[in-house]
Design a protein that fits this description.
Layout lengths: L6 E3 L6 E3 L3 E3 L5 H10 L8 E3 H20 L4 H11 L8 H7 L3 H13 L2 H19 L13 H83 L1
Antiparallel strand pairs: 1-2, 3-4
Helix pairs in contact: 3-7, 5-7
């Protein structure tokens, strides 16, 4: 049979629970306690709160604090709170998701931009230009197809530059889009980590205070027993 002294009522959900599942309201942080009293005016400082309700009201309190600081919560902030409520992981690999959404043309432009900014392209480009100039400077067949000042070569280089510039700009725009997605994901992860660490610190502090209170109760019981034994012996 369960000892009735170990059964207490949660001030929020009004359910009977074991004392080990509850936490005295007087041990909670003062600011959080004031918020609880505003939400639940019938709460008493000498009452108890279960851990599930404490986690729920703590998350609601943090949400209210952020709303006061920012004025209005963004969609990203609400997403973080929903993930905490549902105990879901929110970190994701942005690179894989972004790559899966690229079309064939976008992938081709990225590869062309990557090749155009490499030493391999520079070496091939200079080799072709040098061979072009040498062949047209020293004619092997009696007449050059592009004699000095190499007008055809200038036209080819102009067309290459005109085509290469928009390809590089498209690739840079996609990189900026990827950076924006990565920054948004980093913000979400950092915000959730900050909230989780804050909750963890409060839980550890409440646990230490509760353990200290239990030790004081045990010490008081021991002192009473010792007093009784001393009275019997005398």
């Amino acid at each position: 049979m369960i000892n009735k002294e170990k059964i207490k009522i949660c001030q929020l959900c009004k359910k009977h629970k074991k004392k080990g599942e509850l936490l005295p309201l007087e041990l909670i942080d003062s600011e959080l306690l004031e918020f609880i009293k505003v939400e639940y005016p019938e709460c008493s400082d000498e009452g108890y709160i279960c851990r599930s309700d404490l986690n729920h009201i703590r998350l609601k309190y943090v949400e209210e604090v952020l709303r006061k600081e920012k004025g209005e919560l963004t969609a990203l902030d609400k997403r973080v709170f929903d993930s905490i409520k549902e105990q879901e992981t929110i970190a994701r690999n942005v690179n894989i998701e972004f790559e899966e959404q690229l079309t064939l043309g976008q992938r081709l432009s990225d590869k062309l931009a990557s090749f155009g900014g490499s030493w391999k392209f520079i070496m091939i480009f200079f080799a072709i230009v040098i061979i072009w100039m040498v062949v047209n400077s020293i004619s092997l067949i009696g007449k050059s197809f592009d004699p000095y000042p190499y007008i055809l070569l200038n036209l080819v280089l102009s067309c290459l530059a005109a085509m290469q510039a928009p390809v590089i700009m498209m690739s840079q725009n996609r990189q900026e889009a990827k950076d924006r997605i990565r920054a948004r994901n980093d913000y979400i992860v950092n915000l959730k980590a900050e909230l989780e660490i804050r909750n963890l610190n409060e839980k550890i502090e409440n646990l230490l205070v509760y353990q200290w209170q239990r030790l004081m109760e045990i010490q008081k019981i021991q002192m009473d027993i010792m007093n009784e034994l001393s009275e019997k012996s005398s």
